[in-house]
Amino acid sequence: xxxxxxxxxHTEVELSDEREQHIYAKHPDLLPEHLxxxxxxxxxxDEVRVDARFPATRLLSRWFDNLKGGKFVVxxxxxxxxxxxxxxxxxxxxxxxxxxxxxxWKRA
Length: 108
Prior knowledge:
About 25% of the residues are buried. Strands 6-5-4-3-7 form a five-stranded antiparallel beta sheet. The protein has a two-stranded antiparallel sheet with strand order 1-2. The chain is of the alpha+beta class. It has one domain (about 1-100). The chain contains two helices and seven strands; from the N terminus they run ββααβββββ.
């Protein structure tokens, strides 16, 4: 298991071995090569959106000019309610544009 700081959620976010394998299998353009960009997205996102279908899930995204000619890295983080209060990555992917979720925060 890996843990990443996520200041916007005021906590660390977990990436379990199982979820890492899921991302590697479903989104091989992201992992393993761009694990550092996933960490950067969690540490300093450009936008945070709330998933319209799953309100406990946030989509953190960050634009990278030098990723495949300019793309977003999007990381979906599920926040379990207290007392566990666990925050974990369910999936992550590379995207051309952002279309999902309701805007919660955007870098000015």
